[in-house]
Design brief:
By secondary structure, the protein is mainly alpha-helical. The chain is built from 15 helices and five strands. The strands form two sheets. Strands 4-3-5 form a three-stranded antiparallel β-sheet, with helices on both faces. Strands 1-2 form a two-stranded antiparallel sheet. The chain is globular, with a radius of gyration of 23 Å. It holds the Pfam family TNP-like_GBD.
Length: 327
């Protein structure tokens, strides 16, 4: 689903409600390429947090599962490798690295780990999301008349495809997407807090000099504490990063509840104040300042992300569109 193809769809007036266009008195239906769509879902899940109903789906759950599963002699998801979980730009182009993650096998494995207490119950949202998109991909990617998966077969008058498609439309419409790069957020919060509160004990508790995970590399290379400049990100400790992740979970759960109410910020701040803290800090640490900063930033980016949906499409005509209208 390249930018030219997407631009073509916009110029042809393609919408979810009207997925067709007419040319020479003939009606043509447009469908985006399912393999590219499943890769887009994977890419967005790596960047953002998905919320639907009371459930939350996060790539962090998949990473946590993989890190535990790969150490076992007999694995639940033996096809998963580092290329699936930490794909580079070339790996992201391969469809199998997306479909083997967004699969029934990984969804079932997550459920097993949750039932055994290895993963938190919040990971059930991730398992549900994987299963939904695995089934949806199967339903539009059949190549045989018969399959153990009922929807991975051609559409017929008696098949359940139409009912499933209607359910899938409702599910996708219910998805809410939130910013998910919490490592950078944590580093930014620490940078701002330490500008107004220069305390060595708090810094020792909330910062780290060791790269505890690959996801902290960006903060590491943006960290200028050893330089005369203090404008860089701070490398957060794992307890502080976990705290920010819990703040994010609370924000995702509560934002949709208070969106239409008055005093949205006050309600959300009260919810964030209830998040437990697992790191030490002195009495002078500006915790409320940090929570308000986090809240202001999250509301801003959430509204910004939602406003993109309202933006008018570009007026520049794509090359594919020009070719189509001259047929």
């Amino acid at each position: 689903m390249g930018s030219n193809f997407h631009s073509l769809a916009l110029h042809l007036g393609i919408t979810p409600e009207k997925p067709w266009f007419t040319h020479n008195n003939k009606v043509y239906f447009l469908m985006f390429d399912p393999p590219h769509l499943i890769k887009c879902i994977r890419n967005n899940l790596m960047k953002y947090i998905f919320k639907f109903g009371n459930l939350v789906a996060s790539w962090k759950d998949i990473e946590a599962f993989y890190n535990k599963d790969k150490e076992l002699p007999i694995r639940s998801a033996h096809k998963l490798t580092d290329k699936h979980i930490h794909p580079n730009n070339f790996n992201k182009m391969k469809v199998k690295y997306a479909t083997q993650v967004l699969s029934h096998t990984v969804a079932a494995s997550l459920c097993t780990y949750i039932s055994l207490g290895v993963l938190p119950t919040s990971a059930m949202g991730t398992a549900e999301l994987l299963l939904k998109f695995d089934t949806l991909f199967d339903s539009v990617n059949s190549s045989k008349l018969h399959s153990p998966k009922k929807l991975k077969t051609p559409i017929t008058e008696t098949s359940n495809h139409v009912n499933f498609f209607n359910e899938a439309i409702d599910f996708i419409a219910s998805l809410k997407v939130f910013e998910g790069n919490k490592e950078v957020t944590a580093g930014y919060l620490l940078k701002k807090c330490f500008r107004v509160h220069d305390c060595s004990s708090c810094k020792d508790s909330m910062t780290s000099k060791d790269l505890e995970s690959d996801s902290l590399l960006f903060c590491h290379f943006k960290n200028y504490r050893d330089d005369t400049s203090s404008s860089g990100l701070i490398l957060p400790s794992q307890p502080f990063l976990d705290f920010v992740l819990h703040l994010e979970d609370m924000f995702v759960q509560q934002f949709s509840i208070y969106t239409t109410s008055t005093l949205v910020g006050a309600h959300l701040l009260k919810s964030l104040q209830s998040v437990p803290v697992a790191f030490k800090f002195c009495q002078e640490f500006p915790k409320d300042y940090m929570l308000k900063l986090f809240l202001r930033m999250r509301i801003y980016y959430t509204i910004k992300f939602e406003n993109r949906k309202l933006a008018s499409p570009s007026k520049r005509k794509s090359k594919k569109y020009i070719k189509v209208v001259h047929l």
